């Protein structure tokens, strides 16, 4: 069954809906410019309501974070996976994985076939990929922009690690996205919100039902 990550959770109602609907991963955004950002203290309070082990796994989303920030966040919040959503190089991914002892999920922006060439450089040093759209012109965030990319690019080569499809997914298009790409997992933020940065429990439930039923 398709793995589902609900990202950008910042309140108990959203987290409850994600858990009730069977989310495999929940994401906390540690990137202050994002409207979904949480402080480590806020994420710790939300995570405290979750089971200590098992699903959903807690994913921390970081954008070009330094070791000090990663260490301080991990001190406060029991994160299972580190999602690196900035310009982190393969060397940086390897260093983060070794120093912090957590699986690393590297986000890559995909717009053309050439972007997929990066997969081979990262594959030896990451545990999972998150394949997202590149930020559209004028966007201020490196992700979370409700932008879709050309899914057919993903059918032309094998992805050398487990991976999640992201970018502009919604309850209405996620089943088609899974069918078109064969994605083993999907990730959503904007598509389950009622306003930018505000999660909608009903949309979270609908997304999970559509993705798990695909
Ligand atoms: O969600 C954010 O605010 C965010 C900020 C900075 C980097 C990544 C971010 N979100 C990630 O982007 C994907 C796609 O988002 P969307 O569904 O298109 O809105 C999301 O799943 C997050 O992993």
Automatic annotation (TrEMBL):
Q: Which GO terms describe its molecular function?
A: phosphoribosylanthranilate isomerase activity
What Pfam families would the database entry show? PRAI (PF00697)
UniProt xrefs under InterPro entries: Aldolase_TIM, PRAI_dom, RibuloseP-bd_barrel, TrpF_fam
Keyword Isomerase present in the record's keywords: the answer is yes
What keywords would UniProt list here? Answer: Amino-acid biosynthesis, Aromatic amino acid biosynthesis, Isomerase, Tryptophan biosynthesis
Q: Name one GO biological process term.
A: L-tryptophan biosynthetic process
The similarity annotation says: Belongs to the TrpF family.
Its pathway is: Amino-acid biosynthesis; L-tryptophan biosynthesis; L-tryptophan from chorismate: step 3/5
Source organism of this protein record: Muricoccus roseus
At the top of the EC hierarchy, this enzyme's class is isomerase
Please name the PANTHER family in this protein's record.
N-(5'-PHOSPHORIBOSYL)ANTHRANILATE ISOMERASE
Which protein, by its recorded name, is this? N-(5'-phosphoribosyl)anthranilate isomerase
